[in-house]
């Protein structure tokens, strides 16, 4: 993804997922830049890829990761205009004293957010492993008609 000269490079990963029961989706993992204008531009580029040439028209999609901004900022709002927030608004950054909600997962097109069970993770392990607390969602994909 484009950034300023000597800027912090950013990327994203997109995968088409399908299981043997006919459930399929497109998933994107993102890590947006620290600069607001770049975040907005990168989200636009990612959404354009997800919808380019009708490649995902028949599939639900899920997108999530480190947005580096909260729900009041433009990139987050662009994502919410295209998909539903699938994770609670719970602080995830910094891991040692989480007080900012900057990590989230969004899902669209009939993807149901299920009430998942809490996962017991050792706080010391989390703080040692990363600067963010994990976010996750239990999702149910709609069956595809083929």
Short description:
By secondary structure, the chain is of the alpha+beta class.
Alpha-beta classification: alpha+beta
First CA to last CA: what distance? 34 Å
**Which residue ranges are poorly predicted, with pLDDT under 50 across at least 5 consecutive positions?**
none
**Secondary structure tally, helices:** 3
How would you characterize the overall build of this protein?
The structure is a single chain. The protein has helices at residues 36-51, 74-82, 123-129, and strands at 12-18, 24-31, 61-66, 84-85, 103-107, 112-114, 138-140. Helix 1 runs parallel beside helix 2. It contains three helices and seven strands, in the order E-E-H-E-H-E-E-E-H-E. The chain has 146 residues and is an alpha+beta fold. A five-stranded mixed sheet has the order 1-2-3-5-4, with helices on one face. It has a two-stranded antiparallel sheet with strand order 6-7.
Detail the topology: elements first, then pairings.
Blueprint: E1 12-18, E2 24-31, H1 36-51, E3 61-66, H2 74-82, E4 84-85, E5 103-107, E6 112-114, H3 123-129, E7 138-140
Parallel strand pairs: 2-3
Antiparallel strand pairs: 1-2, 3-5, 4-5, 6-7
Helix pairs in contact: 1-2
Primary descriptors:
globular, 7 strands, 146 residues, 5-stranded mixed β-sheet, two-stranded antiparallel sheet, alpha+beta
